[in-house]
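Forum: Protein Structure Q&A
Topic: Joint prediction for protein chains with partners

I've read a bunch of threads here and the consensus seems to be that you should model interacting components together rather than docking separate models afterwards. I'd like to see that in practice. Below is the full input, 224 residues plus whatever partners are listed. Could one of the regulars post the assembled result?
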Amino acid sequence: MLTSDDCPENVLAIKDALEALEGRWKLLILLSLSAGNKRFKQISKEIHSITDKMLSKELKILESNKLVKRSVYDTFPPTVEYSITEHGKSVEKVLDVLYQWGMQHRKEVMGN
Amino acid sequence: MLTSDDCPENVLAIKDALEALEGRWKLLILLSLSAGNKRFKQISKEIHSITDKMLSKELKILESNKLVKRSVYDTFPPTVEYSITEHGKSVEKVLDVLYQWGMQHRKEVMGN
DNA sequence: CTGAATCCTTGACGATACTG
DNA sequence: CAGTATCGTCAAGGATTCAG
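Posted by a regular:
Agreed with the consensus. Here's the joint model:
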């Protein structure tokens, strides 16, 4: 979460939004969990090129941002399940807008 | 511009959109130019903490993304003016959505 | 199974000096 | 005025190994 530095106040909210979705993996993890609750191993198999370290780290960030919920079940071997929160679901409308503009942007930049 | 790697096709457009706005400066430059055409020096004065190198680099990226237009006038000393393109203006509705969600996000993450 | 610890590479970003 | 060139720093992300 950013604090005031160079930015006018309203820019901070935009930057926070971008930051919450930035990086190579957050989007993929979010979409994977949107399709249903998953365990650590399941996610890493779906996103085959992610390392355990990155998956672990990104999940923590997403959890700290209240986009993802982590549930631990006391079994052996340990069972941990990840799911999308209500707040996590609310990003979908943002992604829609980004998708629409992104398509337009690709047309604009590539071949008109 | 990304090509297909791990990502499902629709994710690429979203990533391109995020990429076009990412980084410490792009948003500030875009907003500055939205308020009116500016010359290099004017922008760097408005965004006082940016270095010439970064401003130059970011402007090139924004120009290559068709978000900003660079106009050179053959005077001495040289005059270069930057302006927002139509495509650049189209990001405003994206920023609106990001702002709305960003505000909600801040409430969610900080003190509900 | 679900991670944490360590080491390494790469690119973003900054400071400063210089040029047409 | 409008940049470029050079050097340096730091954190993101990756590869690999270790642990409860």
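The first strand of chain A starts at residue 38 and ends at 39.
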